[in-house]
Structures are given as structure tokens and as C-alpha cells.
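ok so for the tutorial part 2 we go from a plain amino acid sequence to predicted C-alpha cells. step 1 is just haveing the sequence, like this:
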Amino acid sequence: MFGRKKKLDQGPITATVDWRDIRIFSADWWNPVGVTPAMRDRCVGLTPVWATASVTALKGWGVTAFLDQDWEKDEKSGAFGLFTDPEHLRPICRLLEPETGDDGSLIYTAVDGQGATIGTITKVPPSYRRFKHTWRIRTPAGQVINGRHWMATKQAHHQSARELLNPLNYLGMALDDGSAGGGDGGPRGRRLLWVDPADDSKRAHRTHMMESCSADWCRITNLTPEQLDRRLALLAVIAEGRSVNVKPRF
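step 2 — the prediction. this is what the C-alpha cells look like for a chain of 250 residues:
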């Protein structure tokens, strides 16, 4: 009666950040800013997608989704889904198994939780031109957004990304030092800038939609909420991360 209260056994947390509101997200659960050790401990053995609706990386982090497949280690190209619960019972969206195009590209159909198509995501095969490997999002309305290697993208876009990134964020520091794989605490995989190629104004703030470093980290710009379904952003960035042979941190 007078002893210490028994601590309740808390299970895995469910999604607390609505995918419609996210501005920064990461499928690498090792140490996003604002994710506490207790939150990570409750997601051991799962593949959560951490996110925040804040425009900075310093507050408001929580789970926005759970993957039903791993994304790191070996290269992967198969289907996967995102769910709001760790039991994978309440779907948000899914990438179906890809079809192979005539040029060797992999074309994924993205569907919502009810199976309705919300767009396509294409992995374009690498060409003889270095850094030209591209990922491509196509919306139902026909808009195309290209995920280009940051060294192949117009300097204006690169400069815009550098200005948008918080200097305290590890991706910003990695962009500054130019490291290919990042140092301790830095990003792994491939850094992409996602741009709208239809706008020939060369004004970065009009065409720059988001930046990502595989599934480690992604920031959505102010332009994106009006033009890009957040589910397509999540699926495209995670699919790109799964396509890279990324070594686990531990």
C-alpha cells in the first residue's frame, strides 16, 4: 500500500504529427532534433517516420507514420506502405511494386489509404553524365517535380537551399563542408534538391520544392504545401533512400 507505484508498461507510440502538416521529416530514428531518448526507446524494432510541422528543426517533433519495411542497409526497390499505427492497420499511403519502363526506369504508382492513385514516382536510371541520376514525381494534374543531385542542379537552387537550411542543422553543415557521406552526425546517402522543371524563370524561390538526403532528412519549402501532396513527398524521399546502400548507424 505504501510502496512505490508500479510504472505502467507503455507500448509504442502512435502518430502524433498529422502528415498533412509536416515541414521536416526523417525516417532515420537515431537522433532527429527534438526526439527524446524515451520516444526512441518506445519505437525500438519499428521504423517510424519522425516529423515536425515547424519550419525550424528545433521543436514539435513526433511520429507522423510507420513504415512496414526497412529502408536502410541493402538497396531495395520493392513496395512499401506508411501507416499511422505501429501495427500497420491504419494506412496512409503506399508505393506499389514498380513497373520497368523501356529506358530501364522504375515507375511506381502511389496510392492513398483506400487504394486510389495519388501520383507516380519514377526512378530514372543513371546516364553517362555524372550526377544526372534523377527521381521524378508526377501528380494527377500532370505536374512534374525532379529530384536532382545537388551538384547537378542550377547554382541558384543550391544557393536557395543553403539559405533555407538552419545553420545549426547537420545537413546544413554537411552542405557547407561538401562531404559526400557526412561525418559523425552528418547525413548519409545522396543529397537531392527537388525542383519544378516547368518554371524557366531561374528564380530558385519559385521552383525549389524541397531538399533531402536520402531518408535521413527532408525539408519542405514554403512553395510545396500548395503544389505537392505530402504523401508523395514522403513516398518519394523514402523510396530514394531505400534505393541507396546506406549503412546503419549502429
